[in-house]
Amino acid sequence: MQKQSRKRRARAFPCTLLTVLLGSASVLGHAETPSYRALLESAQASAPRLLEQAANVRAAQAQERQAAAWLNPTLSATYENLGAPAPGGVSQRQDTYALTKAFELGGKRAARIEAEQRRTAATGSREREARLVFASELAVIYATAEAMQQRQTIAETGLGRANDDLRAAQAMVTAGREAELRLAQARASVAAAEAALASSAADAIEALERLSALVGAPEP
């Protein structure tokens, strides 16, 4: 019973993980598998790689806006002779206040703005390139995950047929119509089918874990 429970969890995990990737209620085998386009759109708001690039663009845009602003004036204060004696009752303290305003001459401000604009453009180009690379990598991993799930489905079908054959062999051996060798062969086929299912389930889980890590989805 415990062995069968582990098998059921292994078969259910890929379906559950793919459901989490899109936040939907789809279950493989009972509903339509989420499309690559839908998964790509969902990943725009969760993939760590894309979120990092988007943050870099926002930071560059903020720097560009800051570069376009005029420099703020500076207010400074200086206090002298605070502890000096006061002959004749006249304090020797001197307070000096200065308001300084810097003016950028010779095209310095324009050059600073242009430099930040170029930096923003370069950051935007890197973000677009990162999105293209991400979409390509997601397509490969998504196709791999689909193939592994199909392989798992085939393995499940094979195990079902092997169990049917085992039951038939047991009935024929009990009725004396087949030798014990036939029953041993059927049991060996079931064992091989179980091993194939376990292997395909592990491969499907691994592929979906890679998919989950890429798009930044939490594991169930």
TrEMBL record:
Stored Pfam families: OEP
InterPro entries: MdtP/NodT-like, OMP_efflux
Organism name: Ricinus communis
PANTHER family, A to Z: BLR4935 PROTEIN (PTHR30203:SF24), OUTER MEMBRANE CATION EFFLUX PROTEIN (PTHR30203)
SUPFAM superfamilies: Outer membrane efflux proteins (OEP)
Signal peptide range in chain numbering: 1-31
Keywords in alphabetical order: Signal
Molecular functions per Gene Ontology: efflux transmembrane transporter activity
Keyword Signal included in the entry's annotation: yes
Protein name as it appears in the record: Nickel-cobalt-cadmium resistance protein nccC, putative
